[in-house]
Fold:
Amino acid sequence: MTAILEVQGLTAAYRTGRSRAEVLHGIDLALAPGEIVALVGESGSGKSTVSQCLVRRLPENGEITGGSVVFDGRDLARLPERALRRVRGGEIGFVPQDPNTALNPVMRIGEQIAEALRLHTGASRPAAARRAVEILGEVGIPDPEVRARQYPHELSGGMKQRVLIGMAWSCDPRLVIADEPTSALDVTVQARILDQIQAFARERGTAVLLVTHDLGVASDRADRTIVMQAGEIVDEGPTAEVLGSPRTEYTRELVAAAPGLTSRRLEPVGTRARVAPEPVLEVRGLRKTFSQGGRTFTAVDDVSFSVPAGRTLALVGESGSGKTTTARMAARIASADAGSVLFRGQDVTGLSGAQLREWRRSVQVVYQNPFGSLDPRMSVEKLIAEPLTAFRVGTAAERSSRVLGLLDAVRLPAATATRMPAELSGGQRQRIAIARALALNPDLIVLDEPVSALDVSVQTQVLQVLVDLQAELGLGYLFITHDFGVVRQIADVVVVMQSGRVVEQGPADEILAAPQSSYARELLAAVPGTR
Structure:
């Protein structure tokens, strides 16, 4: 079949001051109509740069330095900007990674879709408005007439990503580039969105370049897979061959690092600490309601569980299941309407003021996004030492020494202390967040999706650090996740939540092997890589 896109010898570079660093080194690839090709690799491999080059959307300091990008007979690398604007959106659709930054926050959803239709198809305002509602229905958004009148902040992450998919396909493009379109979504929403992308490709003959770090997604959805490392293609071919029988050591390492239902539990390097068998944390009958638009809804309803000392309890469920709200109440970041929180057998539900502040030394939180949880104006040393400073622990020299010890604990060199967050990778930033959480010697760490934004090999590195620290220090972990592959690697106990209630809980091995609830079975069936 004749290719709709042919890339030959593509090179690109980024300028830093007076220097220029080449980041793509002679990329060759092709896509045929109706074909789904996965472009995979670690962060920094160059896969997103390739996708940006195809539509000439590189950052200001980036440039294409050689090669060709031939789309339907035209070299987009040399096409005048005015002509290229007609191609973007009209003939080539683009689904970006982050729906929160891709949608205009001050425009209604329907207006944003209609604007693209008017621009690329010449549709009248009434016709574009009607078609925008139809598109929302086609991508599975309920009550599309209502949603069309809403603003982006009124939609969930999954709904916003569906809007972007609808926009990408709205003008019947011949090629769609999807850059990590589901990386931050829970497995069931992810499966529905990928179903939609796959259906559009098959029904409309659209070629799809699926940029992803998730090898499970590539395995389930792609006809061919291209593996990138350090700006070069190191492996490519039919997906079953590339991922089933990797030809290069790098691809083998990626496949081995990918979390999935066949993953093994990570074992600590060293001896597990002796810890008392009693729970470090117990929550009993937690309940939380919110008011919205004059209505009251229950976010968490009668939730109870306990986290054993030195063990990991995974709180699993879709977005909106109540798991994060539950964890916030357990850490006393949010108040409960009913129920109690016990820490080492003592009721801490009613603590306030100085008592609550002192107790929080024992419970620390690591958040999902390492890019947003660290102050970009502070050095790594100041970030890690900040809790020590706030609680007036030690002298300045003792705090500096403690920082170096914590960096070593999370497997980072001492020189990292002088660097700024912007100079670090996502995995390094998350290790800094973990080191900061350890500064006050807590007994419990709440980990809210701590690896979902990281590529697979970095995920494994961060999880291994957590497992080793738990073994060494006897820490209890309350681990919030939607990823059952990660659950298999780290969890001792699993609590499955749906619509604010616990639908199943028990030992991780038992729930992963034979879930009793239909909801847990649905979550497991949606895990990428199981098709």
Notes: The CA atoms of residues 186 and 482 lie 5 Å apart. The chain has a mean pLDDT of 89. The longest helix spans residues 187-204. The first strand starts at residue 5 and ends at 16.
